Amino acid sequence: MDNTRSLHRASPGPLDTARADRRPTEPHSFDARWSDQGWSREPDPESMRDWLGLAPTTTLATLPSRPTEALDQGERVRSAPASRAVPTQRSGPPEQPSGSSSRSGRSFFQIMFWFTLMTSLELWWLDTPARSLTSPADVWIATGRITGLAGGFILLFQVLTMSRAGWLERWIGAHDLLIWHRALGGYLLFAILAHVAATIVGYALLSHQPVLHETWTMVTTYEDMLSATAATGILVAIGLLAIRAIRRLMRYETWYYLHLASYLILILGYGHQFATGQELSMPGFARSYWIALYVFVLANLAWGRLLAPLALNARHRLRVTGVVPEGQDMISIYIGGRRLDRINARAGQFFRWRFLARGCWWQAHPFSLSAAPNHEWLRLTVKVVGDHTEELQYLEPGVRVLAEGPSGVFTADRRVKRRALLIAGGSGIAPIRALLEDLPPGTIMLYRASTPADVVFRRELNWLASERGAEVWYVIGGRDEPGPRHLFTPVGMKKLIPDVTRRDVFLCGPPGLVGASLETLRRLRVPRRQIHLDPFEF
To answer: How many angstroms separate the CA atoms of 36 and 242, rounded?
Structure first.
C-alpha cells in the first residue's frame, strides 16, 4: 500500500472500559479497493501496530491520565516526544439528541429582535401627528428620525452579540453571533449615513439654507453634535477596515484593538440620542424604553466581558502544567487548576486564553479544547502559524492563565440524530478529537491530512475508536490526488458512509476542506440542521 495515500479505520469496541471482560467486536472487513483510492484504516499500517502497543482489552488504568505521568524520568514537559494523555472515564448512557431546544432558543431570540426593533420604530409613529408630512422637508426629517432610531437599535444589538454573555452563546453560538454581527455592520453603516444625510437635507430645506451651510450650523450649534460627528467618523473608518480585502492585510491583533474603538460609538452617540432625538429628549415611555435597552446591553457586556471571566479565574486559578509537541508545527498546552470538574465546559467548546508570560500577556486568542474536560487538566492544541503561537511553544510550567469562556455550541448535545459523522483537517482535529469522547457508538470520523506525518493524536484516536465503538478513517494525500478527491464526492462519501443523510455532521478544518465537504453534503441532500460547523473565524 502507498502509505502517503492511506486511511485507517480503528476497530470498534466497548463503550464502557469498566466492563473489561467484554472484548471489542471484530474489525469490519476491509476492502482493498479503498486503499487503492487513498483510504485506509491506518496512516502507517506497517509501523503503527508496534508503535501503539495496545492490546484489544486495554483499560484506562494502563494509560497515563496526566501529561506528567509519561515524564517521570525528570524530562522537561515541553521537550516530551509526544502527548500520551487519554480522557478520564465517563459513565452512564450517551446523551440523547437535544438539538430542538437550541433551535427554540434561537427562534425566541429572533422573534425578540424583530419585536424590539418594531417597538423602537413605532415610537416615531406614535410621536408623529396624522397628516403632518405635508412638505418635502417634513418627509426628509421623518426619514432621518426613522433611520436614526433603526441605527441606534442595530448598534445596541451589535454590541449585545459581541458581549460574550453565556446565555446568548448557548442559545445562538459564538460563530452565528459573529455572522450576525458582521452582517448587521453594513446595515448599521447605511442607517447612520442615511440618518445624517436625510436630517441635514430636511433641515436645509426647512431653513432655506445650502446643505453645506446647514451642516456646519448643526455641527457647531446643536447639543452633543460634535460627539455624534466623531462617532460617525469612527463608524465609517471601522466599516472601511472591515472590507475583507483590507482586513486580510492586517494582523489579527491590530484589527482587534482597532475594533475596540466601536465601543466609543455607543458612548459618543448616547448623548446625541437623548439630547436631540425628538422621541427620546422628553420624559415618557420612549425615553424609559431606550434607557432600559441601554441598561440591558451594558449589563450583559459587563458580565460577559469582565465579571464572569474574573469570577472564573478567581475560582479555578489556572496555570500551565506542560507544553507537549504533537507533530509538525502542532503543540498541546495542558492547563491545571482548582475544581476543574466545576468549570462547566463541554467537549467541542473553546476558551479565549491569555497567558501571563512575556510576549503573550497582552493578547487573548480563542483555542478549542482538544480533549473533553476532566477534573485533572484542560488541554488545548495549537498550530504554530504566527508570532503569538510561536511564543506559546516556550511557556514554562507554572505560568498563570486567564481564560474567558467556555464558548461555542459545537457540542454533542446539539445533534438531532442518534449517529454522527466527524470531519476534521489541520488544527480542526482539536475539537473533533474532543467530541469523539462525547458521541455515542457508531460514530464515524474522517481525518484529512496531506501526509502521515501531519496526523496527530493517532494513539488517542485509535484508543477512543476502540473504547467508544467508533470508526476512524485517515484520508491521506494531496488535494489533487484521486483517492481523497473521490472521497469528497457524493459517490465516494455515500459508498464509505451509506447512511450519511441520517447522521449529524460535525465539521472543522481549513476553508478548502469545509467548502468541499459542504458541497458534497449539499449534493447528498443532508439537511442543514444536521450540519454543525466550527470554522476558524473569530
So the answer is: 46
pLDDT in the model for residue 102: 58
- From the list 142, 151, 137, the residue with the least C-alpha distance to 187 is 151
d(CA 165, CA 18): 38
**CA nearest neighbour of 33 among 521, 487, 500:** 487
Cα 520 to its chain centre, rounded Å, is 23
Q: If 0-12 CB within 10 Å is exposed, 13-18 middle and 19+ buried, where does residue 99 land?
A: middle
Are 24 and 7 in contact by the 8 Å Cβ rule? The answer is: no
SS3 call for 275: helix
Distance CA 455, CA 463 (A): 15
Instruction: Report d(CA 502, CA 411) in Å as an integer.
Output: 18
Torsion of CA 60, 62, 65, 70, to 10 degrees: -160
Instruction: Provide φ and ψ at 403, rounded to 5°.
Output: -115, 145
For 331-379, what is each residue's pLDDT tens digit? Answer: 899 999 999 988 888 898 899 899 998 877 777 888 999 999 988 999 9
- The cell for 152 is 441606534
CA-CA-CA-CA dihedral for 4, 12, 49, 90, to nearest 10: 110
52: exposed, middle or buried (C-beta count within 10 Å: 0-12, 13-18, 19+)?
middle
- Which residues, 6+ apart, have CB-to-CB distance to 302 below 8 Å? none
The angle at the Cα of 346, spanning 368 to 376, to the nearest 5 degrees, equals 85
Q: Which residues, at least 6 apart from 472, have a Cβ–Cβ distance to it below 8 Å?
A: 8, 9, 10, 445, 447, 461, 462, 464, 465
pLDDT of 60 over the 60 cut: no
- In DSSP notation, 40-84 reads BB-SSHHHHHHHH---TT--GGGS-SSGGGGGTTS--GGG-SS--
With beta carbons less than 8 A apart as the criterion, state whether 283 and 276 touch: no
State the Cα–Cα distance between residues 77 and 68, nearest whole angstrom.
7
